Amino acid sequence: FFLRASVALGGLFFALTGVALYRLTRGWLTGWRALIAPVLWTANYSLLAVYITGKENALFAFLLVLACVLIRRRMSAPARGAWREGAVLGLMVLSRVNAIFPALLLLAVLYLWGGGSRAERARRAGMAAAGMFAVLAVWCVYAQIAFGVLIPNSGTAKLFGSWAALAVFAEQHFPWIPAGWIEALVPGSERVLLARPDLLTLPARDV
Fold it and tell me: Which residues contact 152 (CB under 8 A, 6 or more apart)?
């Protein structure tokens, strides 16, 4: 059930991203030209195959394009209610931690190129930033209590064993370095892997 649901959600967000792309492009283009980007997106079967793998890609892409649509509208709208755009930015960052960079870029665009006086632009961007950090704060508090870290992510699991693998590689190719020095750099949670190098993915000699 979970696998089917994740594939279905990936396909749904992929399709919704195409709709959001149309809403975004028709702000600059008219007629059939506004359909170019969404058609190229939805007709890309290779991209669809990536986005229905159950990972966060589809949700991130949808939230990114949706944020662009909302920020573009907010640039000429009153500051009141800008926290909603910020909330979408916060959800985008939660879907992918490195999305903090496009989120901050969109906030900068909102401030630098938004309509109104400098004070109005600052209020608009400030309220959006407050909405984003409010969403992130709720998650960070929960993550700290439940997991012991502010922003847990899959990268931590993917990198588990990397220090042990580097240590084994160094011991094999640089025997003049005392093994104790090398193993001292390996985190305690990975030292058990030093006895089972067959479980590790070692770097190539020419890397």
Answer: 143
* DSSP states along 154-193: HHHHHTTTHHHHHHHHHHHH-TTS-HHHHHTTS-GGGGGG
Cα–Cα distance for residue pair 129/147, rounded to 1 Å: 26
| Amino acid sitting at position 163 | W
pTM of the model: 0.76
Residue 67 backbone phi and psi in degrees, to 5:
-60, -40
Q: Note the pLDDT tens digit of each residue in 27-69.
A: 888 889 999 999 999 999 888 888 888 888 999 999 999 999 9
Residue 32 gets which letter from DSSP? G
CA 133 to chain centre: 15
| Distances in whole angstroms, Cα of residue 79 to Cα of each of 32, 85, 109, 140 | 33, 11, 14, 26
Q: How far apart are CA 5 and CA 138, in angstroms?
A: 26
The alpha carbon of 89 is separated from its chain's Cα centroid by a whole number of angstroms, namely 11
Cβ atoms within 10 Å of 52's Cβ, excluding its own? 19
